[in-house]
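batch job 7 of whatever, protein = DUF559 domain-containing protein
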Amino acid sequence: MFRSSDDPALSRFHPTEADLVTYRDMARVLGAPPNEAICRYLGAMGQHLVFIGESGQRDWARVDAQARARWPDLPSTGTTAVDGMVLESLPERIVYQILRSMALPDMEIDLHQPIMSDVGPEKADLTLRRRDAACFIEVIGCCGVNRITRNDHERRGLDRFERREAFYRRVGIIPVCIFLDLLARPEELKGLCRSLVERLSGDAEAG
């Protein structure tokens, strides 16, 4: 039996019914359970989940455990994709899985391969390839498009991305940048991924 959020006996460190439904719905549409950082961009319905996530890993794990007890078919947590590929972060896993589900049979998705090895060692998070055409994709899991970070860990992540961004500018490449807030809008994210597959298909045919 789940109590409503206005029940005084309910600990604020435990998920409400609405929290669990939000977590379930996001897990299903993203193909992986969201983390607290993604929930930051869900607006009001994600606020309590953010509070729980910021309270500690044990409290956040309780959200997943309670949701999974009710809906055992939820996708697994972590950075391992459904095809067994291990990604560096949950946001990367989500984007990789969406691209993999849409990619044509002759398309490849490279992980952390050099952008231009003859110029420098910088590597793209993901590279969607078909024949001689390539699309470089950066998944920025430390902040939204406004680039506001909350702690040193996120700041370091943004610094790493901005170094790659400077490299892209230097070599004249425009990458596709997927910031964390887009993962809170799954349909837009899927639309972007679909457009990348279509664009690459057209580029390869034109080439």
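notes: The first strand starts at residue 107 and ends at 111.
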